[in-house]
């Protein structure tokens, strides 16, 4: 019998009892032996491989593969190597195949229709997810106060994160010996420190329409390459005001639909200059409060025309250095008035296509009333 759960039903998540693995080089501990492995790789990479695993006992004679030259001091790695090289998972729906059961499971989700997908529903709002870990992440982001979050702290600086993946990414970029490694695009000269950033670049710049897995809005004809953009679109255009969880500033009337927007607002409006961690340009005295500001500055002031990855309009010859500028162009030049989302002033008849223009209008004309 196929078990399904109503999206409004409570979700019970039981944590299995697991013995902890301790690192003998520092105070780190984890439930996962792979967590120990990743920790050692990130924080103790200056020692020899045999010494790295000393926290799990004396280094034994390595396990050697009889088919290839692979060898490892850990049985779990050896078993994983055997499984990876001796088996292959092939999709019945398409030509996709992989040696990883986890990758195959993720791929198989693409062939399941929306009405057949099991949903995990949030008890505090209308959010529902296909995956339990996505629901846990949602609850942590939207319904958990900062005091109740079990923060993960970096051992080398003041950085802290809610998710292990975020901490791992931080350590890799900022503190690892791999920080100088670059993932290079096969199609152009683009380079990045992060593999996920390279994947996003290839999807944005080099993927054909047929290769793209489009995310389609259920309410209108909007579609996008990015799942995050679809979520933002639904929140902006189709979610009733009463169902929106607003993030409100404690120091002024400002409120926003985005947690990141509130964080940026506080940093820009309510943080003293001496308390701000300024991001400085390496080529001139310019400094910025936000990395996006610095990125825009470098693009406009220090990037040669031949090195710019232009965003090109599908309807005309227009091209822009930034995606947001291309979006503004499309709305201004190629979008019918009836399809434009107008921002209307509540104090007069003024309306505009741009939220920033509405804010400027209210500051100029109605500053005494707001």
UniProtKB/TrEMBL annotation:
Gene3D superfamilies registered for this protein in UniProt: Classic Zinc Finger
Signal peptide: none
Gene Ontology biological-process entries: positive regulation of transcription by RNA polymerase II
Cellular component, GO, one term: nucleus
Domain called C2H2-type: residue spans: 120-148, 247-275
A GO molecular-function descriptor: zinc ion binding
Membrane-spanning segments: none
Record's keyword terms, sorted: Metal-binding, Repeat, Zinc, Zinc-finger
Protein name: C2H2-type domain-containing protein
């Amino acid at each position: 019998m196929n078990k399904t759960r109503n999206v409004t039903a409570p979700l019970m998540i039981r944590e299995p009892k697991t013995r902890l693995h301790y690192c003998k080089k520092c105070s780190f501990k984890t439930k996962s032996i792979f967590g120990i492995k990743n920790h050692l790789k990130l924080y103790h990479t200056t020692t020899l491989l045999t010494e790295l695993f000393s926290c799990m006992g004396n280094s034994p004679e390595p396990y050697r593969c009889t088919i290839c030259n692979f060898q490892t001091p850990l049985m779990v790695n050896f078993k994983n190597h055997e499984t990876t090289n001796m088996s292959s998972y092939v999709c019945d729906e398409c030509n996709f195949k992989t040696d990883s059961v986890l990758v195959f499971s993720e791929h198989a989700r693409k062939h399941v229709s929306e009405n057949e997908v099991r949903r995990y529903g949030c008890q505090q709002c209308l959010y529902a997810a296909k995956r339990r870990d996505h629901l846990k992440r949602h609850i942590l982001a939207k319904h958990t106060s900062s005091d109740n979050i079990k923060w993960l702290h970096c051992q080398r600086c003041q950085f802290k994160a809610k998710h292990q993946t975020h901490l791992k990414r931080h350590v890799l970029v900022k503190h690892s010996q791999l920080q100088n490694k670059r993932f290079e695009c096969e199609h152009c000269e683009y380079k990045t420190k992060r593999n996920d950033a390279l994947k996003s670049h290839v999807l944005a710049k080099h993927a054909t329409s047929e290769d793209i897995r489009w995310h389609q809005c259920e309410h209108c004809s909007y579609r996008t390459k990015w799942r995050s953009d679809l979520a933002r679109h639904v929140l902006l255009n189709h979610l009733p005001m009463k169902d929106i969880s607003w993030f409100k500033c404690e120091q002024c009337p400002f409120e926003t639909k985005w947690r990141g927007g509130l964080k940026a607002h506080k940093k820009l409006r309510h943080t003293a200059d001496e308390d701000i961690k300024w991001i400085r340009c390496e080529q001139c005295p310019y400094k910025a409060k936000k990395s996006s500001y610095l990125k825009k500055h470098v693009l406009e002031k220090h990037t040669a025309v031949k090195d710019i990855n232009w965003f090109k309009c599908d309807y005309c010859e227009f091209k822009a250095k930034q995606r947001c500028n291309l979006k503004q162009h499309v709305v201004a030049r190629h979008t019918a008035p009836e399809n434009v989302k107008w921002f209307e002033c509540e104090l007069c008849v003024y309306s505009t296509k741009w939220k920033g223009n509405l804010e400027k209008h209210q500051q100029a004309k109605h500053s005494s009333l707001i």
